[in-house]
């Protein structure tokens, strides 16, 4: 069959935004392929669904037997193409939020236990001249060391596992530096909040009471 090329379009993603490979597509008049379904895209100003009656009337003037179904806005078309990846991304995000909460609880628990075990040490330090601010900085410094080790391990694993997440990403590279830096900063902030209470508790240790209890 001989076909006449009347124009060339830009590259499009026929299978949705997740389509990675560029596949050649040919647009032909619907009269040459009547066994396929056809779609009409209409550019409007204002609410697109407000002109559905006019669109149906225009199609009926050409062919009254032609049914018009699945009237959707372009936003709905795009949302439908990423519905499944968006659900998976939301599920992973929910698990990440739960993991973040568990990490915060874990940091709090470890530091609270450490502070309770080192009450005598803090008392001796303060009896020898250490200030509350010194003890506070020491506890926070140790918490940040633990957090830094965990963040470093997490970033390493994330770098190795990003290739399995490429199907969930649109417009974001798997090794996006903003995402990695933002995640590390968020974990550091959570660690600071989690260690605040144990650190303040350590800073308020009364040397006399601490030494007397031991």
> Structural class, please?
mainly alpha
Main beta-sheet strand count, sense and barrel state = none
Number of helices: 7
CA-atom Rg in angstroms: 31 Å
First-residue to last-residue Cα separation: 96 Å
The secondary-structure element order is: HHHHHHH
Ranges where pLDDT stays below 50 over 5 or more residues in a row are none
Q: Which of globular, elongated, flat, extended, rod-shaped describes the shape? A: elongated
Helix fraction bin? 55-70%
The averaged pLDDT comes out at: 78
Task: Give the total of beta strands.
Answer: 0
- Give the DSSP E fraction (strand runs of 2 or more residues): under 5%
Q: If you had to describe this structure to a student in words, what would you say it looks like?
A:
Helix 4 (119-127) packs across helix 7 and helix 5 (132-161) runs antiparallel to helix 6. The chain has seven helices and no strands. The protein has 214 residues and is an all-alpha fold. The N and C termini lie far apart (96 Å).
What key attributes describe this structure?
214 residues, single chain, mainly alpha
Q: What's the topology here?
A:
Layout: H1 52-62, H2 74-81, H3 83-117, H4 119-127, H5 132-161, H6 177-203, H7 207-213
Helix pairs in contact: 3-6, 4-7, 5-6
Put the structure in a nutshell:
Helix content is 59%, strand content 0%. The protein has 214 residues and is mainly alpha-helical.
